[in-house]
Design brief:
The structure holds 2 protein chains of 2 kinds.
Chain A: H1 5-8, H2 30-38, E1 42-52, E2 60-69, E3 73-80, E4 84-89, E5 92-97, E6 104-107, H3 112-126, H4 129-135, E7 136-143, E8 146-153, H5 156-159, E9 162-170, E10 173-181, E11 186-193
Antiparallel strand pairs in A: 1-2, 1-11, 2-3, 3-4, 4-5, 5-6, 7-8, 8-9, 9-10, 10-11
Helix pairs in contact in A: 3-4
Chain B: H1 2-24, E1 27-28, H2 41-52, E2 58-64, H3 68-82, E3 88-92, H4 96-108, H5 110-113, H6 124-139, H7 143-150, H8 157-164, E4 172-174, E5 177-179, E6 185-192, H9 199-219, E7 227-231, H10 233-267, H11 270-275, H12 278-295, E8 298-299, H13 300-309, H14 313-323, H15 330-353, H16 361-383, H17 385-388, H18 398-401, H19 403-410, H20 412-432, H21 442-445, H22 450-463, E9 470-476, H23 479-498, E10 504-505, H24 508-511, H25 515-524, H26 528-539, H27 550-561, H28 572-581, E11 582-585, E12 588-596, H29 601-611, E13 617-620, H30 621-655, H31 658-681, H32 688-710, H33 718-739, H34 745-768
Parallel strand pairs in B: 1-8
Antiparallel strand pairs in B: 2-6, 2-7, 3-6, 4-5, 9-12, 9-13, 10-12, 11-12
The chains are: A alpha+beta, B alpha+beta.
Chain lengths: 200, 777
Amino acid sequence: MIFGPKTRLIVVLCLFTNAAPAAAQPAWGLLPLMQSLAQVRTASARFTERQTAPILRAPLISTGTLTYAAPSYLRKTTLTPVPEIFTLDHGEVTLAGGTSGGPHVFALNQDPRIAGLVEGIRATLAGDLPALDRFYTVSMTGSEAGWQLHLLPKDPSLAHFLRSITISGSQGRIATIDTESRDGGDSLMSIQPGSVNDAP
Amino acid sequence: MRPKILALGLWLLILAACGVIAGRTSYRTNMADFLPHSASLAQQVLAGQVSGGAASHIVLLAISGAPTPVLASLSQTLAARLRQEPAFLDVINGDEPSFAGVQNYVWHNRYLLSPTIVPASFSVSGLHGALANDLALLGSELGLAMGQSLANDPTGEMLRLLDQFGNGTGPTKQDGAWMTSDGRSALLLLHTAAPGFDLDAQQQALASIGDNFAQARSTIPGAGSAYLQMSGPSVFAVRTRDTTKQDVTRLSLLGVLGAAALLAFAYRSPRVVLLGLLPIASGALAGIAAVSLAFGFVHGITLGFGVTLIGESLDYAIYLFTQTDRGEQASDTLRRIWPTLRLGALTSIAGFSAMLFSSFTGFAQLGLFSIVGLIGAAATTRFVLPHFVPNGFFAGGAEPIAWPLYRLIRHRRVARGAMAVALLAAILALFTHRGGMWDDNLLDLSPIPATTQQLDQNLRHALGVPDQRYFIVFQAADAQEALQESEALTPTLNGLVAAHQLGGFTLPSAILPSEKTQRQHQLALPDATTLRTNFTQAAAGLPFNAQAFAPFFADVAAQKAAPLLTPADLPPALALQFDSLLVHHGADWVVMAPLRDVIDPSGVAHALAAAGPPGLAFVDLNQESDRLLRNFQSQAVVLAVAGSLVILLVLSAGLRAPSRVLAVAAPLAAAVTMTSALLTLGGAKLSIFMVAGFLLIVAIGSNYCLFFERSAPGTPGWPRAMASIMLANLCTVAAYGLLSFSRIPVLHDIGLTVATGTFLSLFCGAVFSTPAVKEVR
């Protein structure tokens, strides 16, 4: 088993953000959004993901936890239906779990497709606009209370299968990540604010 | 006049025969041919690999001097251009086409290649496990990327194989191209079509890289300041050849001009200056012919180095021409000096004869070359040269050149004291010298400058090209048996990797499994109906759409019926690698599999010896080359010592009196001692080339000492004898002294050693060998 009993105990707490007090707020826009996202140093949450794909007969619903530590650590622990741990740490991705034997390790700088997918999420969490800009054409709609960040892939090999990523949220908090693929598949991840004892 | 015609006729006949033999000789440059006959299989195969193996095809490129995005587009433009050139098997710069060949091969043959293709993988439970794993992958953050191939490859063979093929190793990518981590240089790795030893083809390939880079640079804005650096075995080889050519041409030309000017001044006859080349030219031709007849081939090193070794034959002519007195016939002079000349030549021949018994083919060839060369040169001097000297020839300018020598000999009591002090200091310096006298670094022997070696190491490190140190080597009767044995070793090696005794390994069977294994894989793949039935049952309860997996069914059916893979199916980069892992050596097939990051060499060696086929060797390349080098060094020393002893014997036989032998041998010993002390004090470490240089000092210096010892000051022939020695030494110092300016370590070492040593021989011989003035004879 990959999960010890301890990690199974998920304690739901409030999402804590170290956001600066709302003093002298500039007009709302992409840069202020990035700044407020960058204020978050650590965060953890539970997620529910609903996935459709041509190879799936029915939508795949998976649940698990997310852990983030600024600026480059991200862990996605899928608990149901099949356990799997995805870890990003300093540019290296590890996939562990499943039934395929040993963990698979990928270096982000080796594959622009994996790098694009992962950076889309990590750079958003970190409020790292230059990194987002490298892989995506970035635009924003909405307001501070309800914003949407639209990412359109630049790299042809990434755009070959990824249509777009749309991230929505309010203030410095992310609510959903919607990933649309070229083949008509779609993945909508909803993030419930909460903290888990799943710290890095 | 009869003997003259006979001698000239015979000489021309022999020269013609030697010329014919030399013309038909095969000249080899492969280092393997220079090694001892007794070299181990591993040493022989490795030496062959160095000059012709996969590693010799590698060219490493770095583009620097511009902002990262500009470097990236330069890299891409250059790669695209070079991929059009037939001179390159593949061009890897980190972009997608870089890996397309290998990825296509793996993708299209994954069911023949993957080690996990067994019947159980395609049973209902096997497929169910695979599909459950696919759900996990889909749920991960990489689900979208991974999901792309699931319809073809639900059992995840590709992911497993890419791990095995070392996918995901290499430098970081920035803006779509490989970069150093600081983003200051774009990196490319090329494989040339021609092997490393085909220097002409390599030179063309390198020139084409340079041209294409220049053109790529001119098309990209802001790239004007960018520059290209190249490294790799072929770059070294071509550059060494160029430098050698340049150095040899430039320095030899200067040396020849200097010596010719001296000789022209002394002889006052251009014709006689040219005549002086006859002995060495005839000797070299005879040497080539003899080596070719005895060994079947002549090594490049023998040719280049051998001519240096018989350099003393240039002196033979000098002795003859300079010692011819006013009104004397050259043939009379020759009769007068012949006993000394003959003893000098015999001494050198004796010194070189020790080399004949070396187990290094190269040494043995050099020995034979110099023996035959010197005999040929001496014979030419004796029987041919006098006939060409113009009547009444007198080297009018020789004596003025020799005045320093006259003065030195006049004050030789004082000089003897100075020499004794210098010798004592030299002995003291050698005894108190701290640290190794020997140069143990193989790289120092390589003709490549240290900065170039550093660039190569940096590029290799940045590109992740592993330093191959440890190898498994074993033999098999045919290629299929070799592949099967390689497959049988896989579990043991995997176990060692799991136990962290080993970082990784590359076996030929991972690139191309044996036919037996491929057939087993095809048998393990179910037929179309069974696969569909099993798949439908396996997918029950999972949210998969079985219809979407038609590509999987089609791929399995296709590979079940496909013809088996052969080496011809490999993409160029893999074919090259495969050929270096499985080598056709003589009648046998040899597997040479590199091991990476060996933590516990003896543990790995034991585990492999227990598991592997009989005769499996675990080879530490560093140890092998160290052993080879030590062997080389100790042989060089043994040969030098043996050579010196034989020289003493010959001198004793020729001079008969021990006091006379001492008068000739002692100054030579002193000169060699002082030379090695000077070289050591100058910071140089003794190399095998210097030992060869010492032998050369003794060969050339013994002639000086013999002439010194033979004529007392004040006797009639004395001034001209001294002038001939002085002239000979000046020419030698000019020629070898200029060689010491060469950038090629061999030439530099030999040049410096011989120039210093022969000058010291002249000095020591003059003050020590010269007999006391005899008033009455």
